[in-house]
């Protein structure tokens, strides 16, 4: 099992950085358990990191994909200014503060600390999975209306975080030089907990994320995916297998409603192409764009990340998000090929693939707990290479 030595070979440069470092560890430990605690610790980490930087007279440094996120944030604020209800939209923009996790993680988790941070993510993920399994087996969280959600507020959030942790565990199994035994030990609990959430989008996300990792390592590993899926279906309870089969059912009400939401989203984008209707305004306008085949009378979002961004914040914001996706994916792929810290790069790459696949049926990029974990995971490989992790 990997050790949690956060200062190995790279002690904090001052007392403020030490405080920020332990706040970052707290964020990583609590983001899968309590969003309130994670956000409080984020405030501490950002403030101490900023003051420490100012005192040392250092410039802000971040991976290249951070600048598309800054552009996305700026366009989001512009959209809020042109919103149908600017006050509500600007209030919703507070989530943009989470983007500061990128430069904070890049600086505080640099070098050898990055692998220890990923080990914490895996350990907390395993504990969260155990809670979900207990909820299913003991507390009767066993139906579509009441699913395992760990200590989080919703099963969609819970399944999304499990999805990312599974990608991290898979990456460590395939590429890790240490900690592989621990990843193998926690993997069954993670997979079982995810399956019990009955969340099809997260299942698809895991399949895509793991397939990308297998393909990057050895394409022959792809043969394992259908074997695992078939074995799981044969051993799974009836409720779970029915949920799997519903993915291919065109008459499924949830699937039909998601198609209706996409149709409504297209109409909204046509009417508001530049700035969208404004953050947190989809629910307000949805009844006016609702198509006859829609199941629900209204929806808070469109259950599709690209469509939600385009309709809510405009096509320029969607362009900035696509720029972020491309920049992050390309950077992670380069690190996977050239870096000594391949397991971290692979974890980030798998997480990006899983997020995009699951994001076609769920607005996971707008979920704070999910977004925080994703941003940390894709920043860690860049932070690790600040110790000279690229070969000469």
Summarize the structure.
This protein has 392 residues and is an all-alpha fold. It is 68% helix and 0% strand.
Characterise this structure.
The protein has 392 residues and is mostly helical. The protein is built from 17 helices and no strands.
Characteristics of this structure?
mainly alpha, about 0% strand, about 400 residues, 17 helices
How would a textbook summarize the main sheet? none
- First-residue to last-residue Cα separation: 29 Å
Total count of helical runs of at least 4 residues: 17
Mean of residue pLDDT? 89
Beta-strand proportion: under 5%
Structural class: mainly alpha
What radius of gyration results from the CA coordinates?
21 Å
| Tally of strands | 0
What's the helical proportion of residues? 55-70%
Low-confidence stretches: none
The run of helices and strands is HHHHHHHHHHHHHHHHH
Shape: globular
Layout of SSEs?
Layout: H1 15-30, H2 35-56, H3 66-81, H4 86-92, H5 101-108, H6 113-137, H7 155-175, H8 180-196, H9 200-217, H10 224-235, H11 238-246, H12 253-271, H13 282-289, H14 305-313, H15 315-338, H16 342-358, H17 368-384
Helix pairs in contact: 1-2, 1-6, 3-4, 3-15, 5-17, 6-7, 6-8, 6-17, 7-8, 7-9, 7-16, 7-17, 9-16, 12-14, 14-15, 15-16, 16-17
């Amino acid at each position: 099992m990997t050790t949690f030595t956060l200062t190995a070979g790279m002690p904090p440069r001052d007392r403020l950085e030490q405080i920020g470092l332990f706040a970052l560890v707290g964020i990583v430990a609590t983001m899968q358990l309590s969003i309130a605690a994670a956000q409080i610790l984020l405030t501490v980490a950002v403030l101490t990191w900023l003051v420490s930087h100012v005192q040392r007279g250092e410039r802000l440094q971040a991976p290249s994909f951070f600048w598309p996120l800054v552009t996305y944030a700026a366009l989001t604020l512009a959209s809020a200014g042109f919103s149908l209800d600017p006050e509500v939209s600007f209030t919703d923009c507070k989530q943009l503060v989470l983007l500061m996790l990128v430069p904070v993680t890049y600086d505080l988790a640099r070098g050898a600390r990055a692998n220890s941070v990923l080990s914490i993510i895996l350990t907390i993920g395993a504990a969260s999975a155990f809670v979900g399994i207990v909820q299913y087996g003991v507390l009767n969280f066993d139906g579509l209306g009441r699913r395992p959600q760990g200590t989080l507020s919703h099963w969609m959030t819970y399944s999304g975080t499990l999805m990312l942790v599974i990608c991290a565990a898979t990456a460590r199994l395939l590429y890790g030089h240490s900690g592989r035994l621990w990843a193998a030990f926690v993997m069954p609990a993670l997979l079982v907990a995810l399956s019990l959430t009955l969340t099809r989008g997260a299942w698809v996300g895991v399949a895509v994320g793991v397939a990308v990792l297998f393909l990057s390592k050895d394409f022959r590993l792809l043969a394992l995916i259908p074997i695992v899926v078939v074995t799981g279906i044969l051993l799974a309870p009836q409720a779970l297998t029915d949920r799997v089969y519903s993915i291919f059912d065109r008459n499924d009400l949830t699937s039909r409603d998601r198609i209706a939401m996409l149709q409504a989203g297209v109409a909204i984008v046509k009417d508001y192409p530049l700035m969208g209707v404004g953050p947190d305004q989809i629910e307000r306008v949805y009844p006016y764009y609702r198509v006859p085949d829609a199941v629900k009378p209204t929806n808070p979002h469109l259950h599709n990340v690209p469509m939600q961004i385009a309709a809510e914040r405009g096509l320029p914001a969607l362009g900035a998000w696509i720029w972020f996706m491309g920049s992050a994916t390309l950077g992670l792929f380069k690190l996977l090929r050239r870096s000594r810290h391949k397991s971290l790069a692979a974890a980030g790459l798998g997480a990006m693939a899983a997020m995009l696949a699951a994001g076609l049926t769920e607005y996971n990029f707008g979920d704070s707990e999910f977004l925080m974990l994703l941003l940390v995971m894709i920043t860690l490989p860049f932070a690790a290479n600040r110790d000279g992790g690229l070969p000469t």
